[in-house]
Write a structure and sequence with these properties.
alpha+beta; three-stranded mixed beta sheet; three-stranded antiparallel beta sheet; 4 helices; 6 strands; 22% strand; globular
Length: 146
């Protein structure tokens, strides 16, 4: 989960993400405004989408709409940044998936265990189930998300 993503930021993780997709890992990404092809976030994910299709990987992308000009209670700002791994651990931090977030900014993060990872996975599931984030594309089978 990262609200802000850009091409260079994805590039820093591209080889590892590609390797995970090749090994059959399901990658689920939640960000902002990916459905609009003109956004920086959408552009940043295009190469990863192509790679997932090339290797037969399972990449699901969901988008929260930005809250600008909207009622924050009805459209809360997605501001969390975290990575959950197999419901066993979660990296919770302040860095967006951008070049500055991953290289230049002074960011902070904490690695937490199984309970926190499960709780974060439940939050992601609820975001999807309630429609607060909507599906944009998936290179695998959507049935696991319905």
């Amino acid at each position: 989960v990262s609200p802000y993503i850009e091409l260079r930021g994805v590039g820093y993780l591209f080889a590892r993400l590609s390797d995970a997709l090749t090994r059959g890992v399901r990658l689920v990404l939640i960000t902002h405004d990916v459905a609009d092809l003109a956004t920086v976030n959408s552009h940043a994910l295009e190469e990863l989408r192509r790679e997932a299709e090339r290797v037969g990987g399972d990449l699901a992308v969901f988008s929260a709409e930005s809250a600008s000009g909207r009622d924050r209670e009805m459209h809360p700002l997605l501001h969390a940044k975290f990575v959950v791994s197999d419901d066993r651990s979660i990296l919770l931090g302040s860095a967006n998936l951008t070049a500055y977030g991953l290289t230049t900014n002074l960011e902070v993060g904490a690695l937490l265990g199984r309970q926190a990872a499960r709780e974060a996975s439940e939050v992601v599931s609820k975001l999807i189930e309630t429609g607060l984030v909507r599906p944009v594309f998936h290179t695998g089978d959507w049935s696991g998300f319905r």
